[in-house]
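Provenance

Sequences were taken from public entries as deposited. Structures were produced by running a predictor on each sequence independently, with no templates supplied. The record for Amino acid efflux permease from Caulobacter vibrioides is shown for reference.
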Amino acid sequence: MPHAAWPVDPAAIAPFLLAIVLIELTPGPNMGYLAGLSAVEGRRAGVVTIAGITAGLLVYMLASVAGLTEILRFNRPLYEVLRWAGVAYIFWLAFDAWRGEKPTDFQGEDGRAWIHFRRGLVANLLNPKAALFYVTLLPGFIQTGHASPTVQALILGGAHIAVSIAVHGAIVLSSDGLARRLILEGSSPRTRRLFAVALVATAIWIAVETGR
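Predicted structure for Amino acid efflux permease:
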């Protein structure tokens, strides 16, 4: 089959997949947050948070197709606002985890699920690295002679989201076993505080790594 008949350059598929797998396997804020949350609150909380993170990636992918994320590349003040808002948000999550307050009765399971979804969404939207992925890496794999740049961006972005879900799902599933052990040992309050400390470290990591 001629390469021109492919919507995406087939020679670019393998290196792109390798790049995004390595990126997703690199320890980062989403990975640390999911592992800690699933260990403390279980698999359901982790899965709902993955949905929020995925929604954030979808927003950035669509913004990239529309050319909006390109603004971050050249607008340093806007980038800095987004970067420090993300750091502040992770610090707030750490404070909330340290308090360890249980949801009130009227909140219910659906209300709690919405909280986890919203936190995953906001945390990813406030992560400039997620936006810059679609500005710096993805365009390099879009080639002429194939489908339109919009279609190629949607296909490659969809592949990134699929890999992200797989990696994050593996983290949640592996951390859920730890959750059961922690509950049996009755160490949930201590674990929440360890989670809070880990989030503080994550916030510092974001502040350092996203500076450019």
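The CA atoms of residues 40 and 179 lie 6 Å apart.
The chain is about 80% helix and 0% strand.
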